[in-house]
Design a protein that fits this description.
Helix content is 36%, strand content 22%. By secondary structure, the chain is of the alpha/beta class.
């Protein structure tokens, strides 16, 4: 298999899940030493142009690799799915992703909010924002979101008018901005794999520990049938093909949706809970329609990403002692609350994964404030911009 990128935590988890299945994995990357490289399950890193800076060159490189006959499938592990959809007319090899019209409804945070309203699926109050006056009626605190962003970038919580003004000044150069009221409850995610609008499998998980940008650094699988039903309804409406996920807050399993991820994200918890999404992605090229009910992950399975927990502690605690204490508790099985299976850098099973663990945490322990710059650089390796998609569509 060939992965579309190698720098995200999602790509690293894909390598582990597929490698444990006995699959030979290579990954594309614009950098020399991405995190996915440091695994006994990753055979090679194939250097390609950065997809955000040279999307046409990236697609051409991906097409050359796939038409060589060396790989059985190309699996999009991050926003490259959007680019493959937009660039379908430029590639001889077909990547199994949804049509670009479907991506247009969910990749934009604003269009996704409108879609939730159209489908009458629950979400917090929201509105477009051009100036501070547009915030009236929503109250404070409120979340301000750039229309296009990833990995928590372009999303700012503001609790005062001064903070709102500063956030708008930083976000509006990126394009349209929306305001979204906070949602009550606990943060969770549900994701599934679709074959032309039919749900094949789904998995929901709740946050146990926070990583950089508010991401889930530790998870527990949960039984949230209302979230799965909403995901199934959304995928059917869009005739979705491939991975699709929803972020939400919940009270007793009742979801209030806040984001859409039109891809599979960090699949290791789902795999540990009985739903191997990367393996199912390989089968998408088969035209046989799904039979029976979707496979749903079992509840109660805990996983952790100790490196992500440490980076999250650097962003929140901002002290060496806080980072060291958090990492130590995770390694000793004392956080999050109960023992959890390591899925990002499983050193005992995959010794090379010790390298990114040490290399990333060492500078953070020396200077916790460096985590933001490190995270921004990593995101730049795999992110896709609307401008890149527009260039491909032209």
């Amino acid at each position: 298999m060939l992965l579309s990128e190698a720098s995200s935590f999602t790509a690293r988890e894909f390598v582990t899940v597929l490698g444990r299945d006995g699959v030979v994995v290579d990954a594309m990357s614009s950098v020399q030493a991405p995190i996915a490289r440091f695994s006994r399950y990753c055979r090679a890193i194939r250097r390609v142009p950065a997809p955000s800076q040279d999307p046409l060159g990236y697609l051409a490189a991906a097409d050359r690799l796939m038409t060589s006959g060396e790989y059985d499938a190309l699996l999009p592990t991050h926003e490259q799915a959007w680019l493959f959809s937009a660039g379908r007319h430029l590639m001889r090899h077909r990547v199994e992703v949804a049509d670009i019209a479907a991506f247009d409804r969910v990749e934009s945070k604003i269009e996704f909010a409108r879609l939730l309203d159209d489908l009458r699926l629950p979400q917090p109050a929201w509105r477009l924002v051009e100036n501070e006056g547009d915030l009236s009626g929503l109250g404070l605190p409120v979340w301000l979101k750039a229309e296009f962003s990833t990995a928590g970038r372009g999303v700012v919580r503001v609790s005062s008018r001064d903070e709102a003004a500063a956030a708008l000044a930083s976000l509006t150069p990126r394009g349209r901005v929306m305001a979204q009221a906070p949602a009550p409850g606990r943060y969770a995610q549900v994701q599934g794999l679709f074959r032309r609008g039919r749900l094949m499998a789904a998995a929901a998980s709740e946050l146990l520990a926070t990583g950089v940008g508010g991401s889930a650094a530790a998870r527990v699988s949960v039984h949230h049938p209302e979230a799965v039903t909403a995901l199934e309804r959304l995928g059917a409406f869009l005739s979705w093909h491939g991975g699709l996920g929803l972020d939400y807050f919940h009270e007793d399993g009742r979801p209030c949706f806040i984001e859409c991820n039109p891809r599979i994200s960090e699949p290791a918890n789902a795999a540990a809970a009985g739903v191997d999404l990367p393996a199912l992605m390989i089968s998408l090229a088969d035209d046989t329609p799904p039979s029976g009910e979707p496979v749903v992950a079992r509840a109660g399975v805990r996983t952790r990403s100790t490196l992500a927990i440490g980076l999250g502690a650097a962003e929140t605690a901002r002290t060496r002692r806080g980072v060291a204490k958090t990492v130590a508790r995770a390694l000793l099985g004392r956080a999050p609350r109960k023992p959890a299976r390591e899925v990002l850098t499983p050193v005992l099973d995959d010794p090379p994964s010790l390298v990114p663990f040490v290399v990333a945490l060492a500078p953070i322990l020396a200077r916790p404030a460096a985590v933001r710059r490190m995270a921004a650089g990593t995101v730049a390796d795999y992110s896709i911009t609307p401008e890149a998609v527009a260039e491909v569509r032209r």
